[in-house]
Every structure is written in C-alpha cells, then in structure tokens.
Amino acid sequence: MNTLIVKEPFLLEVGESLPELEISYCTYGKLNEQADNVVWICHALTANADALDWWPGLVGPGKFFDPQSYFIVCANILGSCYGTTGPASIDPRTRTTYGKDFPVVTVRDMVRCHQILAKKLGIRQVELLIGGSMGGQQVLEWAIMAPDFAKRICVLATNARHSAWGIAFNEAQRMAIESDPSWQDRTPGAGKAGLESARAIAMLSYRNYQTYELTQTDKNGELLDDYRASSYQRYQGMKLFNRFDVLSYWYLSKAMDSHHVGRGRGGLEKALSRITARSLVIGIHSDVLFPIGEQATVARGIKGSQLEIIDSFYGHDGFLIESELIAGLLGPFLADEIARNGNKRALEEKMDVIDLNTDAIPGTEGF
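Structure for Homoserine O-acetyltransferase, as requested:
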C-alpha cells in the first residue's frame, strides 16, 4: 500500500476545503514501453485500494487482469477509512480526528482526488477504466470530466444518477446509524449497534429474495426462533463493524445519494454524450438495487456503447462474484473484436426487451 500526501488545500464541490490530502493506493505490475497497458480500477462503497483483496476472481496472477500483462492501479476513495482522507483522519488544523466535522464529499470530489494521483504517477491515459456500483459511478464521472483519459471504460451494476429507491435504502441505513447515541463518538466500539443494523439493511439490497430463500432457509421446519437468516444478518453487521468506520459509512452513503452526472451539465443525456471512450455497460438481471433499466439508460446515452446483461444468483453482489462471466465479456471488448459502432442493433434489441418487461424502470424515464 502506498500513500500520496498533497500538502495543499483541496476544494470540494460543496465549497468547503480540506487543508491537505492523503491518498492511499496500490499498483500491480509494470508500465510497458508503449504505456498502453494501464488498467485503473475504481472500487465500491466499503472496498479499499487492494483490488486483489476484494476482486480476487479478476485481479491477480493468472487472473484476467494479470500483473504480468497489465499495470493496474486502484486508489482508496475520499471519505473512506482505508488510508485516504476521511472522518477518521487527523485534521492538521486541530490535530484531532475530523469526526462529525468532516465535510460532505461527492463522487466528483473522489474523481478529482484520483486525478491528482494519476498526474503524480505520470499516467496521462489508461487502456481501461473500470468499476462496479459506486466504482462505476466514479468511472462515468471521470469519463465525462476528462474524455481523453480512458480509451475504454467498463461500468458494472451502476447508474448515471442515484435513484430514489437507492437513496431510500441509504437513508434507512443512516436512520439505523443515527439511532445509536454513540455513532458520532470517537471511542472504541462507538456506533457498533447502528452500523451493524445499517449493514443488515444493505444486505437486503445487495442480494435478493431467491438468494436468501436458497441459502438462508432453515431445514428444520419446527423452529420458533434462532433462524439461519437472522444469524446471517447479524453476522454481516458484525463483520462490517470489525473492518469499517461508522462515520465513513455515513458520509459515503451521502456521496452516493448525490451522484448525478447531469448536475450542472444540462441533464443526464447531455452529460453522457460527452463520453468518447469505447464503453461496455454490464447489468445484472437479478440486481434489485441497480436494476438493469439503469444500465440501459447509461448505454443509451453513450454513443456506440455495448450493453450486456448477465444472469447471476447473487443480485447486485454479482459484479464482485461472477468473475468468469465478466471476463468473458471483457476479453472481446479489450481485443477490439467488436467494432466501435457495430453493436448498435444488438443494443437496440436489448433495450426493447427491457422496455417490454417493465412498466417503469427507475432511471429510464425521459429517454
């Protein structure tokens, strides 16, 4: 793990400034002589800069993104608790943790933070910019802010604006956190009950009915308590508390809520039309948090984009788990086997199927 320290103010989208920045990042492999083997991975909500840790099916020796072939970069996002400046960081002005005084950050702030890192690393262009969920939100922002930075982008299980449905899930989680009177304290164990409850809520959106029915149903039909599904929810909450900061979770959920690539740019359609990178958009049929209509919206807005929908038992978490399916789509995409505009008819056919199977999918209205 590496850390870049930037000893100058960083202006945030809300108008406030951080006095300095720390950016935690990992790199794998070596930059080739042509400098055309860079893959930049943008991570999701509670992940970190070590992509080998949270995406082991795709990143690592012998995997699709093999360090022997690619120079891979992944940086921790602003507001997190894994090395990049966040609520648990020390404010140099007070020499205490920011805590509840940490300012509101946005996905655009995260991207601008990583643009600083890219410049320091001497990376002017990447072969592929890729991310899922909140990582995909960063990819879209970056591709709009700097159209020439990525030759190709791949976004998985993400959207161009966060939906009312997604915001509602996040607000329910924040309500759980805020119901814990200790959530803003900076003492050991503070916010434990609130964060564990929030994670239990989140799990319902990361998976789906079928996932729980098949994996968490009790074989003993005589039980009156201590159900498998109940234990699973508590376990997931405890696991997150053991590795994540409650204030970071609260702030990052706020950042996700404010994601809207059309803000200040004349709307979604105009913003997405700025993207010039070859684009692969991947949705997951069983994803209830980021329904496939949201990926259809993204694909409609990016000229010449390729839309693919995969089947997965795991719902939204499929973007982390279905490595073989994802690699099967990335291979031809990176090998240029699909012409830049040659997938238009297939894209239109997928759109028709999506439109026929829903009355109103969040994110598709107006397109």
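The CA atoms of residues 14 and 367 lie 29 Å apart.
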